Amino acid sequence: LSVAKKAETPAAEGTYWQTTTRSQDVNVVGAKGQLFAVRTTSRGEWSVGVRPGTRSLMVSGLDDVTAPRTEADQARWRAAGSPATVQAEASTTAGRGTLGYRIGTGRPMVMRTDAGDKIYALGPRNVSYQDLRELPSNSGELRRQLEKLYAEDSSDAETGAGRTAYVLRQAADLITMPVKPAVRA
Predict the structure, then answer these.
(1) 0.90 exceeded by the pTM?
(2) What angle is formed at CA 182 by the lines to CA 179 and CA 185, rounded to 5 degrees?
(3) Least confident stretch, 39-53, 124-138, 156-170
(4) What is the mean pLDDT of the chain?
(5) b/e map of 149-173 (b: 16 or more CB within 10 Å)?
(6) DSSP secondary-structure letter at 66?
(7) Is 88 exposed, middle or buried (0-12, 13-18, 19+ CB in 10 A)?
(8) β-pairing, 57-68 with 104-105?
(9) How far apart are CA 67 and CA 143, in angstroms?
(10) Who's near 136: CB < 8 A, 6+ residues apart?
(11) Could you identify which of 11, 32, 33, 37 might form a hypothetical disulfide with 69, taking C-beta atoms 3.0 to 4.6 angstroms apart as the criterion?
């Protein structure tokens, strides 16, 4: 019984909200007539200052490695001369372009993410720790608040799938933010 009660109690509030993210990207690249897949893996750590006067810091690209994905891909990469950089074609609504990948270990990037007391973006707004702590715990009220953000952020009056996707993206983002446990649930 005491374990169950402890689980319902929110964790003690500290000075920083910390998140660690692992990412992986696989893409088909080409060099000297050879096509092969590369995999990029990395880790990011974000320490968000939630107390007045604390600063936030994001470090991305930790353990960053790009390499041919399989042994067959490695053989094709070697057949292309083991290039240090490779290109992948990319298409966007703006047109076509290329993405460059450097084979090997990458370097981390450090960035301050302070904007006064604003620590996260929620929809079109930059919000403070206090703003996040005041979000409603009731799922219906939270959905209505996220739909209001959609209306602020959207230039069209769409109320269907676009709004639903937007609300779901914002709700997914809330999981990584320092909101009350009931909001995260």
Answers:
(1) no
(2) 95
(3) 156-170
(4) 88
(5) bbeeeeeeeeeeeebeebbeebeee
(6) E
(7) middle
(8) antiparallel
(9) 42
(10) 142, 145, 183
(11) 37
DSSP for 129-181, written as a single string: HHHHHTS-SSHHHHHHHHHHHHHHH-SS---SHHHHHHHHHHHHHHTTSS--H
Letter string b/e over residues 115-142, b meaning 16 or more CB atoms within 10 A of that residue's CB: eebbbbebbeeebbbebbeebeeeeeeb
Structure tokens of 101?
């990948």
Residues in the chain: 185
Token representation of residue 9: 């109690």
Confirm if 174 and 167 have CB atoms less than 8 A apart. Answer: no
Beta strands 125-128 and 57-68, pairing class: unpaired
Torsion-angle region of residue 177: left (phi > 0), alpha (psi -120 to 50) or beta? beta
pLDDT reported for residue 66: 97
Lowest mean pLDDT across 5-9, 47-51, 155-159, 177-181: 5-9
Q: Estimate to the nearest angstrom the gap between the alpha carbon of 150 and the chain centroid.
A: 19
State both tokens at 22: 């692992």
